[in-house]
Each structure stands twice: as C-alpha cells, then as structure tokens.
Structure to design on (336 residues):
C-alpha cells in the first residue's frame, strides 16, 4: 500500500474530529464580525486547536500582542514534550522536517507515536501525507464554519458571553486530561491576587506568576502526579 | 478591529505556536524528556485556562446582583452541558443562550 493510502486511512478519525471542531472555531470567529477568510488564514498559519479557540476570546477582549504571544506560548507549552518524543522518527533536515514540526498537533502526534510503519522507506512520506491531510481537514472546517457564521449572522445583547463559555469548556477539557484540583486552585489564587494588584495588567501578571510558581512547585517530591492513596 | 490588526494577532500566534513545536528540535534534545519538564508541560495549560476563565469573567458586567447571577448561571449551564455531552459548540450555545435569556428578561 502506498504511503498516501496508508496515511489517508490513518487520518480518517482525525477528519471526523477536525471538521466539526474547525467549524466550531469558524462559527465563533465569524461571530466577532471578522472576514471569513481570516479564519482560513488562522488554520493555515497557526494550526492549533486550543490556541485558535483562545484567539477568539483574546480578539474579542482586544488583548495586546504581548499578551497574545505569551498566552499562546504557554497554551502550547505541551508541544515541547511532543517534539521530544518524535525527534528520532522525523527526518533530520529539509523542508519536510520543518513542515512536520509545524504540523505537530495533539492528534497528529498521537497518530505518529501510536502507529508502527511497516515499510521504513515510506515512513517520512507517510508522516508528510498524514500531517498535510490532517491540516487540510482543519482548514476546511475553519473555512466552512466561518462562512456559515457569516451567513447566519446573530447579534444580540450578551453574545460576548461566548468568550467566557469557551474558556470554561477548554478548562473542562484540560481537567479531563489531568484530573488534579491542586494546580487549578493555585491558578485561582494567582488570578485573585493579579486582579487585586493590577487588573489592567491581569493577563501578563497572572500568566507569569503561574509559570514561576509551577516551576517551583513541580520540584516538590511527586507533588500532583502520584494518585492520592 | 480591522483585518490588519487581526492578521497581526494571527501571525503572533503562529510564531508563538511554531516556537513551542520547534523548540525541542533546535535545543533541549538531551534535557527536556526530564520528568520535571514533562510534568510542567502537562500542568501549565490547565492553569492558563483558569487564568483565562477569570480574565473572561472579569470582562463581563458584574455591577449588579442580577448580572452576577446571570454570569454564574451561564457558567453553570456550560459546565453541566459540557460534562454531559463534551461537544464544544453545544456547550457554548447553551451557556450563552441561557445568559442572554437572563439578561433579556432582567433588562
């Protein structure tokens, strides 16, 4: 079987995940009264699910570029861990390498690390097709959703609550991943402090504090990782 | 917000995202599979989301008891629906719908 066919088969579950999720992003994005093609641009150049959803909220709130940069960096910090575990699987140089690095999303990572490729000659082609197919589903979803959102324009008082709801949803998704209350409580404490000290500089202050405090706390012996007995 | 401003936000995010993905390929190859780094990468995103939830809520009108209750109900509905169905768009629509209804009824 060719690398393309193998990659297409492997990517099908991602198609059914990315299309509705990309559309959800597109609809929310269009809700900000922005041109639909900007949602496509986001899918092409950013290509990160959680961060793009966060972008809708940040755009709605009119966050500054440094705030956007820092939030995205921290939101995607988990990718550092992904990269490490595919270092030896990916090509060592060339344009393909950098495209694969660019397209290392949660889903692509899980496919790349969970599948064994029988034919080593085709391995890099397989990774290339897999990454490109996954991204094309995502871009398609973003564009369709944005077109849909622009067509059925909704406007009413209180629509800005979508931003809060979005962050709440993303937080619940994070909760399902870690299932530990302690880091969340620390973050609540940090947020309260930051709101109290400097509400105008809330994001940058709270996010920096989260990094510093977590950097200190993770050194604690087995804290937050071993299940409680 | 015009297209240029949005594009600048998107380019900023693209750069930041690429940095996180390329980082281990450029540096850290020997160090970063350290359990501490892995734990850090796993625990930071939920903390970021808590900060963003607070950021979002603090941007809502909270000057009256009624608006505080509307926000609390909207958040509650979003949580319940999302835990039940885990469908991003559905949760957001229900939560926002309830909030908008309460605001409309109150005003």
């Amino acid at each position: 079987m060719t690398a393309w066919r193998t990659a297409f088969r492997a990517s099908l579950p991602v198609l059914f995940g990315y299309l509705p999720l990309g559309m959800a992003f597109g609809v929310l994005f269009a809700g900000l009264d922005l041109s639909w093609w900007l949602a496509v641009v986001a899918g092409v150049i950013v290509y990160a699910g959680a961060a793009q959803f966060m972008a809708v909220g940040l755009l709605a709130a009119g966050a500054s570029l440094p705030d956007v940069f820092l939030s995205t960096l921290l939101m995607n910090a988990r990718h550092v861990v992904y990269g490490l575990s595919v270092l030896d699987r990916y090509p060592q140089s060339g344009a393909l390498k950098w495209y694969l690095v660019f397209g290392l999303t949660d889903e692509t990572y899980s496919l790349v690390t969970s599948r064994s490729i029988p034919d080593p000659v085709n391995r890099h082609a397989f990774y290339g097709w897999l990454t490109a197919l996954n991204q094309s589903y995502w871009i398609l979803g973003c564009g369709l959703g944005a077109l849909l959102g622009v067509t059925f324009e909704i406007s009413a008082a209180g629509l800005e609550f979508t931003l809060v709801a979005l962050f709440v949803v993303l937080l619940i998704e994070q909760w399902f991943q870690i299932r530990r209350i302690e880091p969340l409580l620390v973050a609540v404490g940090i947020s309260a402090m930051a709101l109290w000290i400097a509400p105008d500089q809330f994001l940058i202050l709270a996010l920096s504090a989260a990094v510093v405090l977590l950097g200190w706390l993770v050194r604690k012996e087995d804290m937050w990782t071993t299940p409680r007995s | 917000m015009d297209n240029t401003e949005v594009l600048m936000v998107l380019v900023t995010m693209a750069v930041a995202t690429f940095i996180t993905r390329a980082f281990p390929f450029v540096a850290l190859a020997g160090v970063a599979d350290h359990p501490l780094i892995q734990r850090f990468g796993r625990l930071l995103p939920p903390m970021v989301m808590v900060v963003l939830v607070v950021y979002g809520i603090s941007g809502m009108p909270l000057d009256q008891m009624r608006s505080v209750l509307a926000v609390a109900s909207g958040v509650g509905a979003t949580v319940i629906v999302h835990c039940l169905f885990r469908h991003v768009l559905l949760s957001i629509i229900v939560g926002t719908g309830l909030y908008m209804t309460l605001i409309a009824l109150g005003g």
Summary: The mean pLDDT of chain A is 83.
